[in-house]
From TrEMBL:
<dbReference type="InterPro" id="IPR050463">
    <property type="entry name" value="Gfo/Idh/MocA_oxidrdct_glycsds"/>
</dbReference>
<dbReference type="Pfam" id="PF01408">
    <property type="entry name" value="GFO_IDH_MocA"/>
</dbReference>
<dbReference type="InterPro" id="IPR036291">
    <property type="entry name" value="NAD(P)-bd_dom_sf"/>
</dbReference>
<dbReference type="Pfam" id="PF22725">
    <property type="entry name" value="GFO_IDH_MocA_C3"/>
</dbReference>
<dbReference type="InterPro" id="IPR000683">
    <property type="entry name" value="Gfo/Idh/MocA-like_OxRdtase_N"/>
</dbReference>
<protein>
    <submittedName>
        <fullName>Gfo/Idh/MocA family oxidoreductase</fullName>
    </submittedName>
</protein>
<dbReference type="InterPro" id="IPR055170">
    <property type="entry name" value="GFO_IDH_MocA-like_dom"/>
</dbReference>
<feature type="domain" description="Gfo/Idh/MocA-like oxidoreductase N-terminal">
    <location>
        <begin position="33"/>
        <end position="155"/>
    </location>
</feature>
<feature type="domain" description="GFO/IDH/MocA-like oxidoreductase">
    <location>
        <begin position="167"/>
        <end position="303"/>
    </location>
</feature>
<dbReference type="GO" id="GO:0000166">
    <property type="term" value="F:nucleotide binding"/>
</dbReference>
Amino acid sequence: MSERRDFLKAAGAGLMILKPETAFGYQANSTVEVGLIGCGGRGNWIAPFFVEYTGARVVALADVVKANLESTQAKFKVENSRSYYGPDSGKQLAESKLDAIVIETPTYFHAEQAKWGVDAGKHVYMAKPMAVDVPGCKSVLASGDRARQKKLTFYVDFQTRVREVYKEAATRIFRGDIGKPAFAQVYYYASRPSKDKGTPGMEPGQRRMSNFYMDKVLGGDIIVEQNIHVIDVANWFLQGHPVKAYGSGGRTDWSGTAYDAGDAWDHFLVQFFYPNGVQADFSSHQLNGGYSDLCVRIVGIDGCADTHYGGMLRIAGKNNWMGAEKDDTFKGGAVENVKLFIAAVKAGQPIYNYEESIRSNLTAILGRTAAYKNREVTWDEMMKSEEKWTHDLKLRW
């Protein structure tokens, strides 16, 4: 698409930080006030990091499930007047008096909620992925551009890119320690995320929300909602995005089991074709815990970079390097991201990683599209898609 030609051609980069003289000021000793949109498991896991590691205050909450809102309100001692409930609760929170919003809702809602935050002049911290479809990705890209114009931090919580050992692995790949990359092996193997979170008599829409990570529309399917972690690292290490993909996959029959939730596929097989003749073999499953691992291997003419989310990172070959036997990627990366975000807000030096994040989101959508169609799909074809996924939920339980 011509409107974002530079973006589509750009290679994955690090954070962009504005010079102090170009950013608005913020009192270094002031307490940053944040509002949490999404009071489910992920929101309650990450919100305490803002308090514990940065001294920020959680002053407002928003959710469409009243029980989640009330329990989180008690946890953070948020005033009743700052606890927003219902379909427009996120917008009400964004327009209230605070410095930043933290988006921890199902993926489907991220794009609209990020727009609310930027429109209201708030800094935005959002969970990955950013959107379930191409129009949603373009919306997030536009919101990021507006945030940049307003000098607001607009930041996506990808854990791997801030880990020092991962950054060192990238540096060694880029400087040629494994030679010219020729092939990549990328996979995300895991058991079923959990049993069906629905309860007897639960309204069907609420059951879908409770199991959103297994719902195609609400989560984007597992290749977007979860597998994006390794897809993002592949793009980073290969310094770009695929030009096309061919895929397949499917969903096993879970009927009659405690894991029969949602309609997402439970395995994908995709070939990604990157520039310069580099191919990446991607596969994922959520079938059993017999073998679980999140891995990105980049093979070059002089060696292999072997990296595992939450595990070992090394280079074997002409330039051997042992980076780590085990890395605390999940929590350590999230804590580092929270610290970076609040530090940027306090220093008045906005940071942005939305362009490379959207690239990875779109790469996951490319793989999903190729698998659904069971044929080759090019990046340009995928980018022309105007299909907007929709739901019919009442968003008030």
